[in-house]
Amino acid sequence: MRRLIITRALSLGLSLAVATLVIFAVVDMVPGDPASYMLGTGAQPDTLAALRQQMGLDLPWPVRYLRRLGGILTGDMGTSLAYKTPVAGMIMERLQVSLPLALMALMLAVALAFPIGMAAAARRGTAADTALMGAAQIGIALPNFWFAMLLVMVFAVNLRWLPAGGFPGWGHPLAALKSLILPAVALALPQAAVLARTLRSALIETLGQDYIRSARAKGLSRAQALRRHALRNALIPVLTILGMQFSFLLAGAIIIENVFYLPGLGRLIFQAIGQRDLVLVQGAVLVLVAATILIAFAVDLAYALIDPRLRG
């Protein structure tokens, strides 16, 4: 296990190093000049040159990259060109919305997907299996922004149980949690559908193994064999999907954040791109890439905990 952790940690460090290089290179190649964008088309050449020098845009790319990398390693991700505030503080502020939202959506997805996937696998080929997988297919096909607006109409406008949008901040914990319920449900529905279908397929494949037939021969019912033996061994592909889903929920909730007017990280990146705030874009994308790599690292460790054969 120790060897696995060391190997994965070295791979994680290398991946982060490559990711920083790629992110800075790609953002730097974006057409246009941030200084010209900030000053407008009527800016004087000397004013434009002074701003470029202040922003470090007159330096060679390798020098700018090493400066930015050194700043990140010391916790300084630079200052936003548009908002004139530290990027690290802005990202942390937005993560206070995006991270709880992603966690809530993932927990809801798991709470829905596991009973549905297990019930469908235990009743393979029956009408119940067809109905459950049909509902899951509808969940995959249903646009989450349309479902989000439907939730707002029902639970916010008509019933007035939950707020239609906005985020009051964590100074009011109950109000903050209530404001995240509808967007979390809207995000969880398609993820639960994908996870349920993946779990059903993995369980059905596992139920065909010899050790499951031996358990059935000893008197266990199909449902008992599924819960006691098949589920643990079917979790490998499910964990892979869960890791991918959490990364998506953390970074890809831009539409839902806009529907509910949530000040999340995805919305911040969208605004930064529109304002050509390259420092903010680089910092936010780097945080998301680092989170994705760390999640993949955690999933690899979870594989080894579930299946000892993967610890070699």
From TrEMBL:
Read off the Pfam families from this record.
BPD_transp_1 (PF00528), BPD_transp_1_N (PF19300)
One Gene Ontology term of the molecular function aspect:
dipeptide transmembrane transporter activity
Q: Which residues form the ABC transmembrane type-1 domain?
A: 95-299
Keyword Nucleotidyltransferase part of the UniProt annotation: no
Keywords from the UniProt entry: Cell membrane, Membrane, Transmembrane, Transmembrane helix, Transport
Where, subcellularly, is it found? Cell membrane
Among SUPFAM superfamilies, the record links this protein to: MetI-like
Which InterPro entries does the UniProt record give?
A: BPD_transp_1_N, MetI-like, MetI-like_sf
Q: What is its main location?
A: membrane
Per UniProt, what is the membrane topology?
Answer: Multi-pass membrane protein
> Looking at the UniProt record for this protein, which Gene Ontology cellular component terms does it annotate, in alphabetical order?
plasma membrane
The family this protein is said to belong to: Belongs to the binding-protein-dependent transport system permease family.
Q: This chain belongs to which protein, by name?
A: ABC transporter permease subunit
